[in-house]
Amino acid sequence: MHAASREALERLKTSLDQGLNESANTVEIGATTGSELFEVVELLDSERSLRVALVDSAAAPEQRVSLIKGLLAGKVSASTEEIVSAAVSQNWSDTRDFRNGLVALGRRALLRSAEAQGQLERVEEELFQLARIVEREPQLEMLLADKSASEDARRDLLAKVLYGKVTSVTEALALQAVGRVQKRPVEDLDALCDEVAALDGREVARVRSAAPLGEQQQSLLADKLEKIYGRKIAVHSEVDSSLLGGAVIRVGDEVIDGSTAGKLQRLRRSLA
């Protein structure tokens, strides 16, 4: 995202947070606003001329706001109309940044709703586990990444996997992500998990261990990693019996391989 767009998005995030914090019903308004922002993005995806008109710097901000208000009147909540109108009044570098900005705001609104319910960490864990499920099922990931299939078809497929197993916020975030896949579905879901952690000032440590980690082990590991990296760490783990023992830890682009399999592999290389 270009500099002008980043500045616009930061202003809008602050405005969104302020509005939700001042609301007497953050849970409902956040959930509604997030879902409706995703719907606005789908409308923009199907109307290129509209996208262009809404970021046209040659037109006065008032003109752009009037255009979007006319389109949204009576179709979305007051909070959604307000944030989209504020977005249209900003200067965006291009239509892609504008669209991605609305997606980011939709996600933030949903996550603020989850936060107000005390479900933020649960959403984070659900997204991590969902990414692992997709990662272990190549056929499923291939179908979710199939751009020849319609957005609705990809969402319907994932909805069947998610049905009754995750929070409504997790479901909304995941379905939006697979509707228009940016990278691999696994990478998009992992990016969402990172985004949830970042909202609480944390970075995700993805751990593969030969045996399940208990709560105390995860807490001790988080403490050690926080001392190493100098920031708050959210530990998410999965079992991988192929490691034979120990664990492999990934924080960002860094990998710490303390597994038995990793040690054996290094030993073989040293003897070769």
Describe this structure in words.
By secondary structure, this protein is an alpha+beta fold. Helix 2 (26-46) runs antiparallel to helix 6 (95-116) and helix 10 (168-179) crosses helix 11. Helix content is 67%, strand content 9%. A hairpin with a 2-residue loop joins strand 3 and strand 4. The model has no long low-confidence stretch (mean pLDDT 89). It has helices at residues 3-22, 26-46, 48-54, 61-72, 78-88, 95-116, 120-136, 138-144, 151-162, 168-179, 185-199, 215-229, 260-271; strands at residues 202-209, 232-239, 247-251, 254-257.
The portion of residues forming beta strands comes to 5-15%
By DSSP (H or I, 4+ residues per run), the number of helices equals 13
The rounded distance between the terminal residues' Cα atoms is 47 Å
Overall shape: elongated
Q: Could you tell me the mean pLDDT?
A: 89
* Secondary structure: number of strands: 4
Strand order of the largest sheet: 2-1-3-4
Largest β-sheet summary: 4 strands, mixed
Low-confidence stretches: none
Fraction of helical residues = 55-70%
Whole-number total of structural domains: 3
GO molecular function: proton-transporting ATP synthase activity, rotational mechanism
Protein name: ATP synthase subunit delta
Function: This protein is part of the stalk that links CF(0) to CF(1). It either transmits conformational changes from CF(0) to CF(1) or is implicated in proton conduction.
Keywords: ATP synthesis, Cell membrane, CF(1), Hydrogen ion transport, Ion transport, Membrane, Transport
